[in-house]
Amino acid sequence: xxxxxxxxxxxxxxxxxxxxxxxxxxxxxxxxxxxxxxxxxxxxxxxxxxxxxxxxxxxxxxxxxxxxxxxxxxxxxxxxxxxxxxxxxxxxxxxxxxxxxxxxxxxxxxxxxxxxxxxxxxxxxxxxxxxxxxxxxxxxxxxxxxxxxxxxxxxxxxxxxxx
Length: 163
Fold this sequence. Notes:
Elements: H1 5-16, H2 21-27, H3 33-47, H4 51-66, H5 74-84, H6 94-115, H7 119-139, H8 143-151
Helix pairs in contact: 3-4, 3-7, 4-6, 6-7, 6-8
């Protein structure tokens, strides 16, 4: 499976810029699992107005921020990879870990808003988080990673040629 230049650039922005194209082509689908599951759980927690679900997911996201890999990456690492013999997932770089930290804070606030009875704001935040995670899961476009790269002056252009 070939890796398009756009997908490569989007994965570079997330911090996978030191991973070779062949490996990324093999695992890029599996790099979508953590954001997809986060988006699904955030959507469920939001739909149910459930602070415990949102706060539990915040703890998982916080682990994704401090550990080299997101806890949901274990689905591939100790399940799929063992069955398929695929390559290991690379450690998450600072942009993706920043995204997890931002998601953890976002989830804590969303849960707190529901707990305080400020439901409209909570639904808006929870919906926006679920949509942001869905964007990463479907396209590899990670807005928090873009924010991180831009703040560090490291944002590569999507049109820039790779060396």
